[in-house]
Amino acid sequence: MIKSVAFHILKGGVGKTTLSGNIGYCISQRNKKTILVDCDIQSSLSSWFIKDDVKIDYELSDILQGKIETRKTIIQIRENLFIIPTKKKDSELEVYSETKLTKEPFIFEDLNIELDKLGFEYSIFDLAPNIGQLERCILLACNEVVTPMVAEYFSIDGLDLFYRELQKINKAYRKNIEYNKIVLNIVNKSFDTHRQYVKELSNLQNYKIYKIGQDRKIADSQKYNQTIFEYYPKSQSIAELEKISLDLI
């Protein structure tokens, strides 16, 4: 059965898309058929992996609305790595999520069933930094959620808020979504505040903490539609990304 992972917290700019793409790529390189699902109306994941001259005929919302078969929306971007995109312009995802999704809370579970039939072993969901009906339905369909954070106060505050929201989903639908991994991004240990947050997070019980240092090459790689593994194989971030990937498999 396909394993579904979401990278999520109620805060933007913490590396959700960056982790989704790099972790998805890393898993796929272990001969695991993996699909990225772009669930953010900003379509950053799609922009990263799909070049501007490639026409996107169908998007995620077309599947959810029953306009097209799932397989016809999927785009292969690497060996063993595929994506269901969301369009940069004229996307219907936001309208769909605000008007019809309340009647279809299990539609992403249905999507995972279809992806499983197509032979996918892992689905990686990239979410917007919200907790609306769209995000709840996606989380409901996932086996595991991983939270990216940066070393600042409001990220810590957001962690507690997100934990409470996830518990509401578990209780309402009698689920047990695994949630025990935090990725602290853009860590610079020469900063006192960063060292303080690393220490504070390390004291949290029931969480495994991963630390990815400041790495300009990660952002640069996205401009060239590449992962950090492809763009700069010497990056010190790769070892930690591989560790996260192995722990998710």
Protein model, in words:
- By secondary structure, this protein is an alpha/beta fold.
- It has a single domain (3-248), classed as P-loop containing nucleotide triphosphate hydrolases (Rossmann fold).
- Helices cover 43% and strands 19% of the residues.
- The chain has helices spanning 16-28, 44-49, 60-64, 93-99, 107-117, 133-140, 153-173, 192-202, 216-223, 228-231, 237-248, and strands spanning 3-7, 34-39, 75-78, 81-84, 122-127, 144-150, 178-187, 208-213.
- Strands 3-4-2-5-1-6-7-8 form an eight-stranded mixed beta sheet, sandwiched between helices.
- Strand 6, helix 7 (153-173) and strand 7 (178-187) form a beta-alpha-beta unit.
- Helix 1 crosses helix 11 (237-248).
- The longest helix is centred in the middle third of the chain and has 21 residues, at 153-173.
- It starts with a strand and ends with a helix.
- The model has no long low-confidence stretch (mean pLDDT 91).
CATH architecture: 3-Layer(aba) Sandwich
What is the CATH level 1 assignment?
A: Alpha Beta
In round numbers, the mean pLDDT is: 91
The number of strands is 8
Please state the CA-atom Rg, rounded to the nearest Å.
Answer: 17 Å
Largest sheet: 8 strands, mixed
- Give me the side-by-side strand order of the main sheet: 3-4-2-5-1-6-7-8
Count of alpha/pi helices: 11
Q: What does the secondary structure layout of this molecule look like, with pairings?
A:
Layout: E1 3-7, H1 16-28, E2 34-39, H2 44-49, H3 60-64, E3 75-78, E4 81-84, H4 93-99, H5 107-117, E5 122-127, H6 133-140, E6 144-150, H7 153-173, E7 178-187, H8 192-202, E8 208-213, H9 216-223, H10 228-231, H11 237-248
Parallel strand pairs: 1-5, 1-6, 2-4, 2-5, 6-7, 7-8
Antiparallel strand pairs: 3-4
